[in-house]
Amino acid sequence: MFEEQRYRFLIQQYKNRVYTYSLYMLKNKMDADDVTQEVMIRIWQNIDKFNMLAAKTWILKTTNNLCIDFLRRRSVSVKRENEIDELFEETYSANNNNDNPYLITHFKMAASKIKEAIQNLPENLRSVFVLYEIEGLKYKEISNALDIPVNSVKVYLLRARKKLQEELRDYEPQKIV
Description:
By secondary structure, this protein is mainly α. It has helices at residues 2-26, 29-45, 55-73, 86-93, 101-119, 123-134, 139-146, 150-168.
């Protein structure tokens, strides 16, 4: 009974993070669903084997490893289209005037461009960037989850930001005359 309560608590706490991270890494909703489901199964299988205080790290590390496995199995050359994540779009345009059609279109296009730029990052940079900027993890948590040194986390984050700046530098919306 206690295991079931722990499991429910962990699922409620982390299912959205697991799915969001998987979606950013895999760029495909169905694959993200599969990874999320597999993580949930592994949580249940290992519910009595890990410390609840370290659950977040264990879950994110498991998610990252499963995403990497998925990416390795899937052909790298195959590109799949992915819809704009509604949460990302809402977050991006939350503080703006939603009555202006030009602004609405601009924010949708900008959100699409930003998400595309994130998805074009190399796997190692994208995983660190998503965990830090989108999931809100600290350097140490990312280091533990991805099993890399803290300094590497910092370097990868810096490189990801620079690549995104380079890719988005020339982006400017069309002005209506």
